[in-house]
Input
Amino acid sequence: MIIIREKKKAEESQAGTPRIGIFWLHKENNNIEIFYSTDKSIQDSPSVGNTVYPSVIHSKAWNDLRRNKFVPFNSEFTDLPRGKINFDKKTRRFEVLVGGYLLNNTEAKKVIRAEFNLPSSTTDWSKNPEGHYEKFKIWFMKKG
Output
């Protein structure tokens, strides 16, 4: 699965097509990295009104990872920082929803933009309005 995913990502990166989806972040040697992501093209994703949104939700994706033994059985989808990317058909802009502590984190933004091929000029960053992405504020502020 990981080899197929890496191949798929490499092919999409070459095409440069922006994608929407969900993701989790983690720190490796004090660097922010994508732990896991799912993505789809705007054309292959559902919409409500003007908003195109990911077809997979975090809890479902994590359950699939757990079932396939990519994460520990006793882990939860809330155990790592996460976010999602939507697209607004009316404004033609991408919206990245994350915890508020990531709004000014240039390293995290760079990693997320690269993962989903998001153009800086048409990507907006917002704090998730439900507030459930705020759990890792201190974790991201720590060094080392």
The radius of gyration is 15 Å. The chain has one domain: 2-141. Helices lie at 2-15, 58-67, 106-116, 137-141.
